[in-house]
Amino acid sequence: MTTAHKTSTQPISHTAVKTTILTGDRATGPLHLGHYVGSLKQRVELQYTHDQTVLVADMQGLTDNANDPKKVSANILNVVADYLAVGIDPELTTICLQSQLPALAELTMYYSNVVSVARLERNPTVKTEIQSKGFGRSIPTGFLTYPISQAADITAFRATCVPVGDDQLPMLEQTNEIVRKINNLAGKEILVECEAMLSNASRLPSTDGKNKMSKSMGNAINLGASEKEIRQAVKSMYTDPNHLRIEDPGQIEGNIVFTYLDAFHPDQALVASLKEHYQAGGLGDGQTKKVLEACLLDMLSPIRQRRERYLADKGELIAVLRRGSEKARERTQKVLFDVRDVFGLNLF
Ligand code: TRP
């Protein structure tokens, strides 16, 4: 962690004021190992010491999927099942659904008035995404403005800490600009600025070692992957293309099998000795892959089983989301009231 917030699994006393955290995921597909090392594991720890809300961002998911809304609606419960399966506990973490919190949409409207189109077009993450998604001249308005909606998500909970990947830093910068503008208009501190909490785990590469991990590219291992899918993914994993014969010395750097062993294997001493052997020559890719395969099967099978159990009772998953959303609704309405007040619009 790069910020001062300490994590521990010890609950702190209820009299201490807990730091407020908000994170979220676009519900556009099931979550994968990249999410696990980059954020889910951290959330499981943070929930004991922080006031944590996790938002299933269905509306943000629609900003580039309006022609295929099922991609979002069909994945909402998958994402919730992923959360529960890794140990996010709805008694400790508020799990809520963006579309069910009207204050978020309303705040977005108010904030839109203090953000210029030029500022939105300068957001580097949005800029890159616009290019990679090939919108051409038909950028959906909702897509261009999603940083404003994300500012609404964050401020509506008065979150001061937002655990995200570094691609999200421009969103937090824009959020804080909006916070300062609204506070300026108000002449007092209505909203609080937030800080990023960057995970110290480096971004997990895709299994092909080439691209960003994505469900659509088939280069990610989902948390719910079957044994067969795990085996298949490990088998086709990118290693050292110059390591042609077992007796040749192999390269560790850029070898995805070792990157994953570093990230997941519980016995790092073993990983160190495998690396030594591999670099010296005499250790084949088939053998290193066997070790990784066993490690991932071990780690993912309890997660997969819990996930399947949760998905077998959709009613309970919906109830979790409904309870969390009801709690969040009340909380976010208060912030909406304060912001509306800044504009003098609480007439009745
Ligand atoms: N933009 C985030 C992503 O693509 C998801 C998200 C939506 C989010 N609202 C948020 C993250 C609020 C942090 C805080 O992963």
Automatic annotation (TrEMBL):
Spell out the family assignment given in the record's similarity comment.
Answer: Belongs to the class-I aminoacyl-tRNA synthetase family.
The gene for this chain is trpS
Provide the GO MF annotations for this entry: ATP binding; tryptophan-tRNA ligase activity
Entry keyword annotation includes Protein biosynthesis: yes
Give the reactions, separated by semicolons, that this protein catalyses.
tRNA(Trp) + L-tryptophan + ATP = L-tryptophyl-tRNA(Trp) + AMP + diphosphate + H(+)
Q: Output a single Gene Ontology CC term carried by this record.
A: cytoplasm
Q: Which UniProt keywords apply?
A: Aminoacyl-tRNA synthetase, ATP-binding, Ligase, Nucleotide-binding, Protein biosynthesis
Q: Which residues form the signal peptide?
A: none
Which major enzyme category is it? ligase
List, alphabetically, the NCBIfam families matched.
trpS
UniProt protein name: Tryptophan--tRNA ligase
The UniProt entry's GO biological process terms, in alphabetical order, are: tryptophanyl-tRNA aminoacylation
Q: Does the UniProt entry include the keyword Ligase?
A: yes
The organism encoding this protein is Vibrio eleionomae
Instruction: State one Pfam family annotation.
Output: tRNA-synt_1b
Q: What is its EC number?
A: 6.1.1.2
